[in-house]
Amino acid sequence: MSVAFRRESDEEHKEPRFELPIPAGPNLVTARGLALTRAKVEALEAEVAGETDEARRESIRRDLRYWHTRLATAELAPVPTLDEVAFGTRVTFRLNGTERVLDIVGDDEAEPAAGRISFSAPLARALIGGFEGEQVDFGGKTEAIEILAIAAIPEDAGR
Predict the structure, then answer these.
(1) What is the pTM of this model?
(2) Residues 119-145: pLDDT tens digits?
(3) Can you tell me the distance from the alpha carbon of 85 to that of 150, in angstroms, rounded to the nearest whole number?
(4) How far, in Å, CA of 29 to CA of 42, rounded?
(5) Which of 6, 39, 140, 147 has the most beta carbons within 10 angstroms of its beta carbon?
(6) Half-sphere exposure of 125 (CA within 13 A, CB side)
(7) Compositionally biased, Basic and acidic residues: which spans (predicted)?
(8) CATH 3.10.50.30 in the chain, residues?
(9) Residue 4 above 50 pLDDT?
(10) Contact, 122 vs 106, CB < 8 A?
(11) In sequence order, what are the residues at sequence separation of 6 or more whose Cβ sits closer than 8 angstroms to the Cβ of residue 39?
């Protein structure tokens, strides 16, 4: 019989499922970010325990492996001093004539639409180390951003 007509199993025809990529660099987290990571692990563990569909269970396990790794490697960042923009600060700035407010947080906590960006994002990297009243370069433009205020991220910053 020709090899073309032989079917060993369905497994050999499936697309490979790769692990979720882990962001490069340190896994800095805020206190909120650490709590969110713990909650995600707990929710996924409960979901795996209750799932009866094997394909869905394996998908959840894949997500759980990612979150277990993120929890194990989480580094709680020290509380910032607020004299300069740093990880864990809320910064008010003006860019292209528009005033914006952003919280600088960890990779897994970032949610740009809610005003939380990762410390590894280009905008955050431009802001970090800046002082209130300073103008910093961004996007190839000199003094493109004016830092207006630096504050702690409020405890209820779920926004």
Answers:
(1) 0.82
(2) 999 999 999 999 999 999 999 999 999
(3) 6
(4) 18
(5) 147
(6) 6
(7) 1-18
(8) 89-152
(9) yes
(10) no
(11) none
Label the pairing between strands 98-105 and 116-118.
Answer: parallel
Higher pLDDT, 85 or 25: 85
Tokens encoding 113: 């639409």
Which pLDDT value is given to residue 143?
Answer: 92
**Is 89-152 a domain of CATH 3.40.440.10?**
no
pLDDT at residue 2, as a whole number: 55
Pick the closest to residue 85 from 123, 38, 55, 36 (CA basis): 123
Closest CA to 104 of 136, 83, 80, 69: 80
Query: Which residues, in sequence order, are CB contacts of 127 under 8 Å at separation 6+?
Result: 85, 91, 93, 102, 104, 136, 145, 147
The three-point CA angle 152-154-23 to 5° equals 75
